[in-house]
Structures are given as C-alpha cells and as structure tokens.
C-alpha cells in the first residue's frame, strides 16, 4: 500500500509540473505583452486638419450606408455622425495590467487581457469596453445594446506615428462602417 501511495504521489507531481510551468509561462507572456503595449504610452494628435478628419469619417459613413433604403439611410447616417466625431487627441498609458486610453480627455480603463469593464459613453449611456494587446496592436472595443465599435491602434515603424482603424457594426446597418485616421506622437 505504501508503495502504491508513493507511486501515486510521484505521478501526481509529474503531471502537476507542466501545469505550473504553463501558468508561469502565461504570466510571463502577459507581462511581456504589457511591456510591448507600453510602447504606445504617450500622446498622439490627429495629423491633418479637423475638417479633413471629419470629412474622412463622414465619407465612410456615406459610402458604407449607401445601399440602405432612403428612410433608414438618413436615420443611420445621423446617428453614426453623432457618435463618430473626430478624436483630435489620444493619450495611452499602461498601468497595473490595465490599458488606459483617453480620447479627447474621455478616459477609458480596462484590463489588457481583453476582459470587459463598465464605462459611460459621451452621451452618458452605460456601456461595456475591452482593451487587448494582440499582434503588436492595441484593440479597444465598445459594446452597447445598439452595436459595437472597435478601435485598432497600430504604431508606425519608428513609433512616431499611429494609425487608428475604426469599425462600427450594428444590426441596424447593412454592413460595417470603416475608416482610418493617422496620428503623430506629440
């Protein structure tokens, strides 16, 4: 019986070792991802004029709602224009496992692992957000009852520029609204 208990103890210790190693690898890979995400830390300003930026957004809204019916197209465009004004300034920080993103001063904080957090949108509505660092990009997603907005931040090669790609989806839209904006570290 003692021999059987010893064999079981050895077998359990051998099977537990890879699990502990996996947990340590996961923790170290999350720490490495947070270190990589910290490359984004700083302030970025829109690189063109305000009117040019809003023109890019409004053009995408018109293009991506073009195939909707006359009645629903006007309503959709109005709502999209209200919720997609140009963000002139983006501040990013990485702290204590969280990514903090300020869009024109509106602060959004969420864990860097992609799990959701509660927030308030600019219109005062309760929403859910998530932040994740994946494949060298920061992905910010806003979730509401009416749809979803995904912001993907991608640093330029030298770290002085950043591309913001936006994708807005909703059951009310025939397809996603997409646009991209360039920012400079400032």
Portion in beta strands:
35-45%
What is the name of the CATH topology?
Lipocalin
Characterize the biggest β-sheet. 10 strands, antiparallel
Output the helix-strand order: HEHHEEEEEEEEE
In CATH's first tier, which class applies?
Answer: Mainly Beta
Fourth-level CATH superfamily: Calycin beta-barrel core domain
Summarize the structure.
This protein is α+β, with helices and mostly antiparallel strands and 186 residues long.
Quick tags:
186 residues, alpha+beta, Lipocalin, globular
Description:
- The longest helix is centred in the first third of the chain and has 36 residues, at 2-37.
- Helix 2 runs antiparallel to helix 3.
- Mean pLDDT is 85; it is low at 1-28.
- Strand 5 (113-120) and strand 6 form a beta hairpin.
- The protein has three helices and ten strands.
- With 186 residues, it is α+β, with helices and mostly antiparallel strands.
Topology of helices and strands:
Layout: H1 2-37, E1 42-46, H2 50-65, H3 70-83, E2 89-95, E3 98-103, E4 106-111, E5 113-120, E6 126-134, E7 137-144, E8 147-155, E9 161-169, E10 177-185
Helix pairs in contact: 2-3
